[in-house]
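During the no-cost extension, the postdoctoral fellow (Dr. R.K.) reprocessed legacy sequence entries with the updated structure-token encoder. One reprocessed record is reproduced below for audit purposes.
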Amino acid sequence: MATSVSPAPSAAGVLPAPSALLELLKPITWFAPMWAFACGVVSSGVPASGHWLVIVAGTLLAGPLVCATSQAANDWYDRHVDAINEPNRPIPSGRIPGRWGLYVALAWTGLSLLVAAALGLWVFWAAILGLALAWVYSAPPLRLKQNGWWGNAAVGLCYEGLPWFTGAAVMAGALPDRRVIIVALLYSLGAHGIMTLNDFKSVEGDRRMNLRSLPVQLGTDWAARLACVVMALPQVAVILLLSAWDHAWHATMVGLLLIVQLALMSRLLEQPREKAAWYNGTGTTLYVIGMLVTAFALRQGVL
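Re-encoded structure tokens follow.
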């Protein structure tokens, strides 16, 4: 594990620019949990009319608050790795000076908990779990990201399962239907594969910093194969469940989306390292469309 690097004393009184803070919070990463939250809202079966305020608040909680907290915490504890892999990021480049990265992560944690508490007990507990996973993913001593098996599972749950649960809980004002919880967990499992492909971009730095991502542990060829299996099998389970719950049309739609993903996976496996980012922009899009199709099926089932 890398030793801690103290900020330069001259940086202590320097305020980061708003543009650097926004870059630290990585708005592009907010889409996944916000989409999952929307799926949770849809799957609840509760009409949106009269609930717009809590829907907006929950969307902000999923993306600009909890997800942004995880990004700030990750960048703070990853500043040594980023100095190798991506030295232009806000912290290693000095655009977020001193300990401001840590301060932002702590402040966003507190703000996230306040908003979650206002949205109800189940949302509050889901936020606590999500924030706890966000911190232990990056921070010592656990630092789950040191091992791709555990780290990817934590991220999958934070990006897909918990926001989906939160969206359904916000609308229902109670513990969501068991079918909603099952499907949210399945899509969280599939996201483990998405995160494996995401790790392809930082293989060299991960090796040097002893971060055992799955591409480092297994090699890029086997990691890509594993990622494809992990993404596909939960969708097969969703298809079977939707069929058993009398949603044959929705099951067929998810099945067709999976078939296209499998065709794209075959291209990915030809050149895993070169095409990992390409697949995350194509196959993953089909994956999340399937999430929404499933959410509409569940909506019909709980009305």
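The chain has 13 helices and no strands. Residues 272-302 form the longest helix (31 residues). The remaining legacy entries will be reprocessed before the final report is submitted.
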